[in-house]
Amino acid sequence: MDVFEKLRILSDAAKYDAACTSSGVDKKASRGGMGSAAACGICHSFAGDGRCISLLKVLMTNVCVYDCAYCVNRVSHDTLRTAFTPRELADLTMQFYRRNYIEGLFLSSGVMGSADATCERMIETLRILREEYRFAGYIHAKAIPGANQALVARLGLLADRLSVNIEMPSGASLAKLAPDKTKKAILAPMGYMQQRIAESSHDLVRYRHAPRFAPAGQSTQMIIGASPETDYHILKLTAGLYARYDLKRVFFSAYVPVTESPLLPSLETPPPLWREHRLYQADWLLRFYGFTVDEILDEQHPGFHPYMDPKCHWALQHKDFFPLEVNRASFEELLRVPGIGVKSAWRIIKARRACALTWDSLGKIGVVVKRAQYFLLCRGRQRSGIVWERSAVLAALMSARERALYEAQEGEVRQMSLFAGATVPLLTSKERRELQCIQLPI
Amino acid sequence: MHTAANLTYRYDGTFAGLLCCVFESYAAHEMPEAIWGPDMPEQSLFEEKEILTDNRHAERVERSIPAKIGNEAEELVRLAFFTTLPDKELTVLRFLRQGYHYGASVLDFAGEDSVHRLREAVKHLLSEAHLLKGFIRFSVQHNVLVTTIGPKNYVLPFLARHFSERYPEEHILIYDETHRMALIYRPYEYGIIPMDAFRAAPPDDEERKFRSLWQTFYDAIEIKPRHNEKCRRNFMPKRYWSYMTEFSRACSKNSVMHV
Ligand code: SF4
Predict the structure, then answer these.
(1) For the residues of A6-53, what is the DSSP string, one character each?
(2) Reading across the β-sheet that carries B34-36, which strands appear in turn?
(3) Which residues of B157-178 are buried (b: 16+ CB within 10 A; e: fewer)?
(4) What is the C-alpha separation between A279 and A308, in angstroms, rounded?
(5) What residue ranges do the domains of chain A occupy?
(6) Interface touch A31/B188, C-beta < 8 Å
(7) CA distances in angstroms from A12 to A427, B200, B218, B223, listed in the order given
(8) Which of A65, A210, B39, B76 is 20 to 30 A from A234 in CA distance terms?
(9) What is the CA radius of gyration of chain B?
């Protein structure tokens, strides 16, 4: 099989993995080598689905002895199988990198033969890149659950980032859909990697040239919508993973039905993009905005609001918290205001030292005044001309992206009629009451 | 200070020249209505004053900015000079006049128009430079990495370090056809020089093979049920597409020998 066909098959089979960032390390090639990495990450292109292409995302092979129900590579699926040789893949990576198509390589694999044999093949690819070609670009490698710890250790010294996919948001779903994998087999390498990463940054303080173990840290991903867990459950798990394993990122991947199975949503089910999007927003609130899981969702409300982002939703439910005087509120308080981000909150704090802020100046600082106006006072005053009508408030609080997502899911947005009075199907009566409340000047 | 109605400064288009305009504005106690570079055609309606570039004057102004307004202001002014802001010279002058008066706190005047406009322009410049770090596509031609770009901002100085760190052993040519300048790198030095035109040679077999492989990858990696044109264009504006391998397939697709 020629390399075109291999590339087509092995990138096609790898594309459902959500992680494709190249961020987290800053480094450059030594003389004689090639490659650098930027901490902020660089997107080289955007695919037709709007996702960033940063890395050559491929599988070593799509041959797999396992039978995970949600996966195109499972052994029981009738599909064309192939594998890159380590040399082929290393050459392809270098040639793409040289032409500035990519930031590096994202290498995952089906399990060919045994977990160890697969892992060795990946290691050989990375070894050629790092040692023979002196490639200093970004490499993200998947640790294969069940592989020998010594092999994971070797992988970690060659790659910038390692990850093990947690796949399913609960042990029960894992047992049902990925019968060959156990929670333990997944969590064991995660724990091991965490320990090595911690040791390595510790060593680095002592010996400047100590080889670094996965300097960009580890991440994981789980599939959303193939199993019945609630958003609340998933978010709890996410927070737990950050706390327990020091993960850099948890990625969520909306399940795209690839196979007919009684255990899975039917083939016609559209991928739950809005859920994925909401989970990323909530993940952001956890990591950067000082929210806790239970502030975002709880047992009684285990699912996200479909068309309102979790931060706006929280704000609408906490009207006693608002309005905040923008010239006095603390950084943490400002972060709770829809329309104010980490950067703009920080700019507010700085700017108001020079002189008290006005409504006019807020926009220039980067605050989305259209949204923030309902929650702020400036020098004790509300913004003039605010319309407190419910439909206007909701329209202002929905982002363009939310509308686009809405369009993709439900067709044409009949924007306002959606929220018109009692026919609103999406809001509970409690939510409707809350929205009524903010019509009064708070 | 008097604002002379219709007074226009004309300078030589260099950064030092702009600093001399600042010097002149203070020396003559006047505020021009416009500052034009050498390319702007003459307008007989306006009183025009030619500002000659005097390096001693430029240096004095250059030293005074970090001393009186701070390093951040200096950087803002330097970066602003590379932007596409149409009246960047006058905006820089206004900003510096405010800065000499109020000191470093001028940067925090959220309502101050010149600060805001300079910042926005610089943001646009840096973000275009950042995008191009990813969107540039090199062709390998006689073992030199070559490419043409058509940026709005003058981004070459911001690409130089990035690509020389990325490909320390390569020879590189990036031609900016908007500004007719080229960034040239060879181990381990680079320069930016004026260049009237540049045309890459037609790709050889190996080059065509990798272009075609990249297109294969680009097509395979999309998850079709998630197609989202709006999102793609939002992140990757169409004006970059014509320079990118994944969108220029006219000649490569069928003529490639699959090996
Ligand atoms: S082990 Fe990985 S590649 Fe194999 S079937 Fe399961 S998810 Fe797919």
Answers:
(1) HHHHHHHTTTT-------S--EEPPTT-B-EE-TT----EE-TTS-EE
(2) B34-36, B7-10, B47-50
(3) ebbbebbbbbbbebebbbbbee
(4) 12
(5) 3-207, 305-442
(6) yes
(7) 39, 32, 10, 9
(8) A65
(9) 23
- What DSSP assignment string belongs to B134-188? HH---EEETTEEEEEE--SS--HHHHHHHHHHH-TTSEEEEEETTTTEEEEEETT
The answer to whether the CB atoms of B165 and A347 lie below 8 A apart is: no
- A31–B169: do the CB atoms touch at under 8 Å? yes
**Ligand 1 mean position to B222 CA, how many Å?**
20
Domain boundaries, chain B: 2-125, 136-258
Say if strands B181-186 and B171-176 run parallel, antiparallel, or are unpaired: antiparallel
Question: Taking CA atoms, what residue in B is nearest to A27?
Answer: B165
**Cα(A249)–Cα(A247) distance, integer angstroms:** 5
**Cβ neighbourhood burial of A16 (10 Å; 0-12, 13-18, 19+):** buried
**Ligand 1 centroid, distance to A60 Cα (angstroms):** 12
Complex ipTM > 0.85: yes
**Ligand 1 lining (C-beta closer than 6 Å):** A 64, 66, 68, 71, 73-74, 110-111, 178
Cβ atoms of A111 and A118 closer than 8 Å: yes
pLDDT in tens, chain B (259 residues): 556 567 899 999 999 999 999 999 999 999 999 999 888 877 767 788 999 999 999 999 999 999 999 999 999 999 999 999 989 999 999 999 999 999 988 888 766 789 989 999 999 999 999 999 999 999 999 999 999 999 999 999 999 999 999 999 999 999 999 999 999 999 999 999 999 999 988 999 999 999 999 999 999 999 888 888 988 999 999 999 999 999 987 544 443 333 3
Ligand 1, atom 5, lies closest to the CA of A74
Residues in chain B with CB shorter than 8 Å from the CB of A365 are 110
Beta bridge partners of A27: A37
A contacts of B227 (beta carbons < 8 Å): 48-49
Contacts of A148 (CB under 8 A, 6+ apart): A115, A116, A119
Closest C-alpha residue for ligand 1 atom 3: A110
**B-chain residue closest to A56, CA distance:** B217
CB contact under 8 A, A361 and B111: yes
Separation in Å, CA B178 to CA A115, A250, B2, B149? 53, 42, 38, 8
CA distance A14 to A137: 20
Contact B222 A15 (CB under 8 A): yes
pLDDT in tens, A226-247: 999 999 999 999 999 999 999 9
Instruction: List CB contacts (< 8 A) between B169 and chain A.
Output: 31-34
